[in-house]
Amino acid sequence: MSKLGDLGARLHRGEVGYDFIGNRKIWYGLSILITITAIVALAVRGLNMGIEFQGGAVFTTPKSEVSVSQAQEYAEEASGHDAIVQQLGNGSLRIQVGGLDTAQSDKVRTELAKDLNVAEDKIAAELVGPSWGEQIATKAWTGLGIFMILVVIYLAIAFEWRMAIAALIALIHDLTITVGIYSLVGFEVTVGTVIGLLTILGYSLYDTVVVFDSLKEQTKDITKQTRFTYSELANRSINGTLVRSINTTVVALLPVAGLLFIGGGVLGAGMLNDISLSLFVGLAAGAYSSIFIATPLVADLKEREPAIRALKKRIMAKRAGAAAKGESYDGSADENEIAVVGPRASRHGRSSEHRG
C-alpha cells in the first residue's frame, strides 16, 4: 500500500488525525479576514466588466507581426477608449474596445487596418450591445437564486437543516472569495467567467456532501454512547474523508490548471481562460470550505441542542472523574462493563452450583 493510501486508512480508522474542529476559531478568523478583503476590494475597485456587459466592439485580426502592446496603442489612439488585446493561438489578435457604436466601430476598423498593414475586410468586427450583458447577468442571478433554494431544500431533506445552512454559508464564502480575487487582480469578467462561477457551485458542494454523509452515519444514535462528543465525531468524519477530498480536488484542479496556464497563457484561448480561472479559484475555495468551514459550523450548531449539550457534559464529567483517579477514560468502559460483568456473574453462578 502507498504511503498516502496507508495514511488514508489510518485517518479513516481514527488512529491519527488533526483537530480541525478544535482549531475552528482559527479557520473562522482566516475566512472572515479573506471575505472582508474580498468585499472591500469589490466596494473599492469593483469588477472589470468585459465588453459583453458594458457594450462595445470586438475586432479579430489576421496573423500580424505587430506586438500586443503596439496593437493596444493603435486601438486606443483610433477609438479614444481603453482597449484590451489578446494574442490568440494562431498568431491573430483579439482587440476589445468598449463604448463604441456602429459608426465608431467602422472608423476604428479602418484605422486598425492601416496601422496593422492588413486588408480591412480581413478584420472581423463584432458589435456588442450592453443590453445583452444585462440579460445574461439577470439570468445568472436568477439561476444562482434557484440553485441556492434547491440546495437548501435537498440538504435539509437528505441530512438536516443545520447541514443545509452550513453548506449554504460555505457556498456563499466560495463565491465571495472567487469574485473578490477577480476584483483584486483586475481580471476581466466575461460571459465565460459567469459560466465558470455557475459551474463551481456543484463542485463546491461535492466534498461538503461527502463529509456530511460520513458525519450522518457516525452520529447515528449518538446519545446512546458516552465515548465521543458530536464535535469529536465531526472531526473524525473530516479526517476519515480527508485523503479522498485531497485526491478528488487535485484530480479536478489538474485539467483546469492545464486550461488556465497552457490553454490561456500559452495558446491565448480567450474564453477558456476566463472559465478556467473561475473554476480553479472556486475548486480550491470549495475544498477549503468543506473542511474548515462547513463541518465546523455544523458542529457548532448541533452542540446548541439540549441533548447534544447534555451528552457533552456527561462525557466531560466522566473524563474528569477518570483523570482525578489518575486513569484515562476512552468511553469504552461503559460498553465493556456489560461485557465483563456478565461472564463474571455466570462464572459465579457455576461456582455456587458446584459448591452446592
From TrEMBL:
InterPro entries: SecD/SecF_arch_bac, SecD/SecF_bac, SecD/SecF_CS, SecD_SecF_C, SecD_SecF_C_bact, SecF_bac
Keywords: Cell membrane, Membrane, Protein transport, Translocation, Transmembrane, Transmembrane helix, Transport
Membrane topology: Multi-pass membrane protein
Gene3D superfamilies: Multidrug efflux transporter AcrB transmembrane domain
Pfam families: Sec_GG, SecD_SecF_C
UniProt region (Disordered), positions on chain: 322-356
Membrane-traversing stretches: 26-44, 140-157, 164-185, 191-212, 246-269, 275-299
Domain Protein export membrane protein SecD/SecF C-terminal: 113-303
Location in or out of the cell: Cell membrane
SUPFAM superfamilies: Multidrug efflux transporter AcrB transmembrane domain
Function per UniProt: Part of the Sec protein translocase complex. Interacts with the SecYEG preprotein conducting channel. SecDF uses the proton motive force (PMF) to complete protein translocation after the ATP-dependent function of SecA.
Family to which this protein belongs: Belongs to the SecD/SecF family. SecF subfamily.
Assembly and binders: Forms a complex with SecD. Part of the essential Sec protein translocation apparatus which comprises SecA, SecYEG and auxiliary proteins SecDF. Other proteins may also be involved.
The name this protein goes by in its record: Protein-export membrane protein SecF
